[in-house]
Design a protein that fits this description.
Distance between the termini: 61 Å
Number of helices: 13
Largest sheet: 7 strands, mixed
Bound molecules: 1,4-dihydronicotinamide adenine dinucleotide
Shape: globular
Structural class: alpha/beta
Number of strands: 24
């Protein structure tokens, strides 16, 4: 039997990045994927949501264009057509991934893989009734939507998770979203912009609880004024069809979307009974190695930060280590940017003011409305936005940047670069930003 250098279970951003990198270095790689290549991100996550959100934004902009001196009559949308376009975008990107893995050292198997046994010399994997052996195993099995044990939620036909919502070709008239996290607020944006009556129910005192709360307050104010019903500190007690009881009150909608977090997928790994887990996710070191000598894990299954770009970077670091590439690289977890595709969008990197306080790090907080950027003023009528920079009070290095305002997702990378490299405020002041761009806010705020 051919013994591969590396077997990878899961073909999402972690799996396909590792497969491409290791096979291009001339190592024999075998990758198993039970659904489509590209994983959650490409098929039922980042890309389909952004495709639909872009359609919704076009409609929203057309119906709110009067503030720019433009009036459009009889503006309409066709949700089925938006869905069709989304499917085409996804299909093209999945084909692109297939192309990237098309080399003589990479074998892709379509099917559900399970670990059969492991020794320190090899790992044996079964898939479609065949057995395969590899010197090393990389687990990139991702995560799935968590369904909380709320009475009436299971097998309720009006309850959707994000995958159901992305597949639906018709819009409901009203929607209750349980969980005001990233998925909840992105879907709230999509449905609200397309005229669905949206209620968000969040158990904690704030939506998007891990983000900078001044930034979140800007979104909350806009969304509440726009008519999205956002309930915080509200716990769902039970469901009866579309009737949701929370804090003793009953709310009703045609559909209920549940977005209360995701959990690591560990199916098929039962043979690795001494694999170390923490809160249901695989424990890894700085190079994505597990406690077992020849077993690695990357992406959502590690429960670190559930973002596609983290998964891909983990895969790069892991392959670098496996191939003994010098210098060994690490992941700068302190400088991972993240974006929430609300409208306006939120983009952040590094620690928040609230986190600095809880870690007792003395910081200076710089705050500026986005309207200090000329380009922002020109293109964001009626919006103020906000940019916050968290600076180490002792050495003046930039520890975090948090923005709300379009299109902050497109320039947060500059802030990531500063945080990653420990830039100080005087160093950042020497960076020239093109004028007029919204990115100039990163200079104005210093
Ligand atoms: P999340 O962890 O971001 O948010 C879940 C929310 O649900 C939290 O605010 C939590 O307090 C609330 N919650 C939990 N139980 C509840 C209950 N019983 N009733 C009411 N509220 C409850 O998880 P989410 O939104 O499901 O996203 C999953 C993962 O996917 C996250 O790690 C997220 O970062 C990632 N993701 C990233 C995106 C992006 O980068 N743009 C887009 C979508 C998802």
């Amino acid at each position: 039997m051919n013994r591969y250098f590396l077997a990878i279970i899961g073909g999402g951003p972690a799996g396909y990045t590792a497969a491409e990198k290791a096979s291009k270095a001339g190592k024999e790689v075998i990758l198993f994927e039970q659904n489509a290549l590209g994983g959650t991100c490409l098929n039922v996550g980042c890309i389909p949501t952004k495709s639909l959100l872009y359609g919704a934004k076009q409609y929203y902009n057309a119906t709110h264009a009067a503030k720019y001196g433009v009036t459009a009559e009889n503006v309409a949308f066709d949700y089925a057509a938006m869905q069709k376009r989304k499917t085409i975008v996804v299909r093209k990107l999945v084909a692109g991934i297939k192309q990237r893995l098309n080399n003589e050292y990479c074998t892709v198997i379509s099917g559900t893989a399970a670990v059969a046994c492991r020794t320190d010399e090899f790992v044996s994997i079964t898939c479609n009734g065949e057995t395969y052996e590899a010197e090393n195993l990389l687990i990139c099995t991702g995560s799935t939507n968590f369904v909380p044990p709320i009475p009436g939620i299971k097998d309720n036909p009006v309850v959707w998770d994000s995958t159901d919502a992305l597949a639906a070709t018709e819009l409901p008239k009203s929607m209750i979203i349980i969980g005001g996290g990233v998925i909840g607020m992105e879907f709230a944006t999509l449905y609200h912009e397309l005229g669905v009556h949206v209620t968000v129910i969040e158990a904690l005192p704030n939506i998007l609880p891990n983000l900078d709360q001044d930034v979140v307050a800007v979104l909350l104010d806009k969304y509440r004024k726009a008519g999205i019903n956002i309930l915080t500190s509200t716990k769902v007690e039970s469901l009866d069809g579309g009737k949701v009881t929370a804090n003793g009150e009953v709310y009703e909608a045609e559909k209920v979307l549940v977005s209360v977090g995701r959990r690591a997928n560990l199916q098929g790994l039962e043979a690795l009974n001494d694999l170390e887990l923490n809160r249901g996710a695989i424990v890894i070191d700085d190079f994505c190695k597990t406690n077992l000598p020849n077993v690695y894990a990357c992406g959502d299954v590690t429960g670190k930060i559930m973002l596609a770009h983290v998964a891909a970077r983990q895969a790069e670091v892991m392959v670098g280590r496996l191939l003994k590439q010098i210098p060994l690289q690490r992941i700068a977890y302190n400088a991972i940017p993240s974006v929430v595709y609300t409208n306006p969008e939120i983009a952040t990197v590094g620690i928040t003011e609230q986190q600095a306080e809880s870690m007792s790090i003395p910081v200076e907080v710089h705050k500026l409305p986005m309207t200090f950027s000329g380009r922002f003023m020109a293109e964001n009528e009626g919006e103020t936005g906000l940019c916050k920079m968290i600076v180490d009070a002792k050495n003046h290095s930039i520890l975090g940047v948090h923005c709300i305002g379009n299109p902050c997702s497109e320039f947060i990378s500059a802030a990531s670069f500063a945080v990653r490299n420990g830039y100080t405020v005087p160093e950042m002041q020497q960076v020239v930003f093109p004028h007029p761009t919204v990115s100039e806010i990163l200079h104005e705020i210093l």
